[in-house]
């Protein structure tokens, strides 16, 4: 009865608390689910608990209460190795992730651990570097690269392990505008072309509509609102009450409705959406 089988979530958290050994309560009553192929943002101000949450996804931290299940099975010791293959973790600061003398060695490290060698390993290294657009960087030292390039090397080293989910802590953090645009395009391409599920943490509200289908907003260790990207950003007061803001174009649209007599069918969240809606307004006002 194939049609009746409900797909199991890749990541599912239920009633999860996490308290650090020093007594700091970082997460309270977290419920969250990530389905295959989704792009999920965890949005929250600094200190909200995003990085702590992400460390629970692959068993780096065990929940103090509640369950963290991957593909329907709670994480426990005997499952850890498999979980870490399925969930690829890209840290916020590439300097925490990179440690090898060359980009090539950096990517080969995990592959050697998987038992790959020779031609097969070379193929995977070449593939991962091509995906992130750093094919000519194989023999460079990761430490001499720009911030954006370092992030892409860290991403390549995780991608090489062929994970089903990429978990990225602040993927656009500390990048310049071009580096930010590049990483957003790259992650969307990885999701679309390779079918890899994306979960990312950010406090950058402008990047969320460009790379998320679903958003969980966190503050002080709790999820305060969740839903589709459009739903979440329509809760304007709630977003602001939790030390966040609307995407810039949504703010502009709000002011144009308040002071300019505009009426938009939904809040535009990206420049592309805003452009379309403003053109429609202009066309309407000329009639
Ligand atoms: N190793 C730790 N020991 C104790 N408290 C910590 C530790 N790491 C983070 N915290 C605390 O947990 C809370 C959530 O931090 P974090 O998960 O880093 O938030 P975010 O990534 O959203 O900025 C903060 O209050 C922070 O001070
Ligand atoms: Mg963090």
Topology:
Layout: E1 11-19, E2 25-34, E3 39-43, H1 50-57, E4 65-70, E5 73-74, H2 80-86, E6 87-90, H3 94-97, H4 103-113, H5 118-131, H6 147-159, E7 165-169, H7 177-194, E8 197-202, H8 208-211, E9 214-219, E10 222-228, H9 229-234, H10 236-241, H11 248-259, H12 271-286
Parallel strand pairs: 3-8, 3-9, 6-7, 7-8
Antiparallel strand pairs: 1-2, 1-4, 4-5, 9-10
Helix pairs in contact: 4-5, 4-6, 5-6
The structure holds adenosine-5'-diphosphate (ADP) and magnesium ion.
What does this structure look like?
The chain has twelve helices and ten strands. The protein has 287 residues and is of the alpha/beta class. The chain folds into two domains: 2-94 and 163-246, P-loop containing nucleotide triphosphate hydrolases (Rossmann fold, 3-Layer(aba) Sandwich), CATH 3.40.50.300; 247-287, no CATH class. The strands form two sheets. It has a six-stranded mixed β-sheet, sandwiched between helices. Strands 2-1-4-5 form a four-stranded antiparallel β-sheet, covered by helices on one side. α4 (103-113) crosses α5 and α5 (118-131) packs across α6 (147-159). It is globular and about 70 Å long. Residues 50-51, 92, 169 line the site of magnesium ion (MG).
């Amino acid at each position: 009865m194939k049609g009746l089988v409900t797909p199991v979530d890749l990541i599912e958290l239920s009633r999860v608390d996490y308290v650090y050994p020093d007594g700091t309560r970082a997460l309270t009553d977290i419920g969250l689910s990530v389905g295959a192929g989704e792009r999920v943002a965890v949005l929250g101000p600094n200190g909200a608990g995003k990085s702590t949450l992400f460390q629970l996804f692959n068993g780096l931290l065990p929940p103090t209460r509640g369950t963290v299940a991957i593909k329907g099975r709670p994480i426990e010791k005997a499952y850890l190795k498999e979980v870490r293959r399925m969930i690829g973790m890209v840290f916020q600061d590439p300097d925490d992730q990179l440690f090898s003398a060359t980009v090539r060695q950096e990517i080969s490290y995990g592959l050697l651990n998987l038992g790959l060698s020779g031609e097969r390993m070379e193929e995977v290294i070449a593939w991962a570097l091509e995906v992130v657009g750093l094919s000519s960087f194989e023999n460079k030292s990761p430490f001499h690269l720009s911030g954006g390039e370092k992030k892409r090397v860290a991403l390549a080293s995780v991608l090489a392990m062929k994970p089903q989910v990429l978990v990225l802590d602040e993927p656009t953090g500390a990048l310049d505008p071009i580096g930010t645009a590049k990483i957003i395009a790259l992650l969307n391409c990885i999701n679309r072309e390779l079918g890899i599920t994306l979960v990312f943490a950010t406090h950058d509200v402008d990047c969320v509509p460009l790379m998320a289908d679903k958003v969980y907003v966190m503050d002080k260790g709790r999820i305060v609102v969740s839903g589709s990207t459009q739903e979440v950003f329509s809760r304007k007061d709630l977003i602001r009450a939790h030390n966040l803001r609307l995407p810039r174009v949504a703010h502009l649209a709000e002011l144009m409705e308040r002071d300019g007599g505009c009426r938009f069918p939904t809040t535009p969240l990206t420049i592309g959406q805003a452009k379309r809606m403003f053109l429609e307004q202009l066309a309407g006002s000329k009639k």
